[in-house]
Design goal:
This protein is of the alpha+beta class. It has 2 domains: 100 residues, no CATH class; 34 residues, no CATH class. The protein is built from 5 helices and 6 strands. The strands form 3 sheets. The protein has a two-stranded antiparallel sheet. A two-stranded antiparallel sheet has the order 3-6. Helix 1 crosses helix 5.
């Protein structure tokens, strides 16, 4: 484990700004990827196909990173992540909706359905692993900088 002073000294001794930027980006990428895998493995929604958890991606910019749901791979992800309100559903391509309850078939011209409770699993993962994320970033950055010197 590296302390803040030691990290500051490494940064001050580094004269190449591009090398520092590369070290920050690599360290941020490693820590963000680890957090993404944690979010993938630790969620509360029912994962029937794995499409939503496998649609998690991350992006690293110069000094920031983000984890997001690729909606091209999982268009339903935003509804699970943000939730929905109670709403009315109706048939789009037929005259009635059809569904089964307890082996009995029912038809409906439309009806109210309960909303989906929000499951912000990426934010939950960050909140649970915030200190680990920061320690990993600092440790990786120190290692990158020591290699650069």
């Amino acid at each position: 484990m590296i302390d803040t002073r030691e990290l500051q000294e490494l940064i001050e001794n580094l004269t190449d700004k591009k090398m520092l930027e590369r070290a920050v980006r690599n360290s941020l990428n490693n820590a963000t990827e680890e957090l993404k895998f944690y979010a993938r493995a630790n969620h509360k929604f029912e994962n029937r196909t794995g499409v939503l958890s496998n649609s998690l991606e991350h992006r690293v910019n110069d000094n920031s990173s983000s984890i997001f749901i690729n909606e091209d791979k999982a268009p339903h992800g935003k509804f699970i992540y943000k939730g929905t309100q109670d709403h009315f559903i109706f048939p789009k391509n037929s005259n009635a909706l059809s569904f089964a309850i307890g082996g009995n078939r029912f038809f409906s011209k439309g009806h109210m359905v309960k909303g989906i409770k929000a499951e912000p699993f990426i934010l939950n993962a960050y909140n649970k692993r915030k200190s680990i994320f920061r320690r990993q970033f600092a440790s990786d950055l120190a290692e990158e900088l020591q290699e650069a010197l």
